[in-house]
């Protein structure tokens, strides 16, 4: 028995660095990094591989993006993915979630053709730039896979033919069983990602990694990119600088002044 797990990963702007808009209202990403929320599905996949060696798990990282998205692929391989595919094509520039999901789903299908099928797609809860959380559902629809979102624990079922998951709810925790093929999004409460040591970093350099064009995965360039996007940014205004706060001098009535300040803003 073999199990192929695909983990979509995304390169995103470093949240610690200032981001600006370019003239065409796309984000000047500057220095990009692997989306932090994508580390959790990677760790979940690695844990599944370790928990059931007999399942012969292969973890394949997939990304869609410009040339510098290779950094996300590199980090995924260092963390423990076995192989990676990077869809890079100039026609992808300006794609919305619909276009990106079309390319990503086609890339996952390509992985299936190369590796004898895809059993499981593990995604992050969202990306740390857009935070729309729509990609798992879009992928499940395009691939015709089962879908479970917001899993905060991921484990094999008794026969290692599917997963036993838990999902947080407002009043209770759900326990969910899902059979393959499936798309599962994983929260940042599911695990604690391990970070690659020197040995893992060096080993990643020898792992297979391929760059694909849209044509190679069967996606028409006219169906993605800015011109094909269903939504577009019409304008962007920088957030005004935060003004100085109110300073309360404690001369015996600081508590009253603070209460008045909060009451005026309906915070009490």
TrEMBL record:
One of its GO terms (molecular function) is electron transfer activity. Pfam families: ETF. Keywords: Electron transport, Transport. InterPro entries: ETF_a/b_N, ETF_b, ETF_beta_N, Rossmann-like_a/b/a_fold. Coiled coil: none annotated. Its cofactor is FAD. The electron transfer flavoprotein serves as a specific electron acceptor for other dehydrogenases. It transfers the electrons to the main respiratory chain via ETF-ubiquinone oxidoreductase (ETF dehydrogenase). Belongs to the ETF beta-subunit/FixA family. PANTHER family: ELECTRON TRANSFER FLAVOPROTEIN BETA-SUBUNIT, ELECTRON TRANSFER FLAVOPROTEIN SUBUNIT BETA. This is Electron transfer flavoprotein subunit beta. It comes from Kocuria rhizophila.
């Amino acid at each position: 028995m073999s199990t192929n797990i695909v983990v979509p990963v995304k390169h995103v702007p470093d949240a610690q660095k200032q981001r600006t808009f370019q003239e065409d209202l796309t984000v000047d990403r500057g220095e990009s990094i692997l989306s932090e929320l994508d580390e959790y599905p990677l760790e979940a996949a690695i844990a599944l591989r370790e928990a059931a060696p007999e399942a012969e798990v292969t973890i394949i990282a997939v990304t869609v993006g410009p040339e510098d998205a290779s950094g996300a692929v590199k980090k995924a391989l260092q963390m423990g993915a076995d192989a990676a595919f990077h869809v890079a094509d100039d026609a992808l520039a300006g794609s919305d979630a619909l276009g990106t999901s079309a390319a990503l789903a086609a890339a996952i299908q390509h992985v299936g053709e190369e590796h004898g099928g895809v059993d499981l797609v593990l995604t992050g809860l969202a990306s740390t730039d857009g935070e729309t959380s729509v990609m798992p559902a879009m992928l499940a629809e395009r691939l015709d896979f089962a879908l479970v979102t917001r899993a905060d624990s991921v484990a094999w079922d008794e026969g290692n033919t599917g997963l036993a998951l838990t999902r947080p709810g407002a009043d209770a925790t759900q326990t969910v069983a899902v059979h393959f093929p499936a798309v599962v999004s994983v929260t940042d409460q599911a695990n604690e990602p391990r970070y690659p040591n020197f040995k893992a970093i060096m080993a990643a350099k020898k792992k297979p990694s391929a760059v694909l064009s849209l044509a190679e995965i069967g996606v028409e360039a006219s169906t993605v990119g800015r011109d094909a996007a269903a939504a577009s940014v019409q304008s962007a205004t920088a957030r005004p600088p935060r003004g100085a706060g109110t300073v309360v001098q404690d001369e015996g009535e600081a508590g009253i002044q603070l209460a008045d300040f909060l009451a005026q803003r309906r915070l009490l």
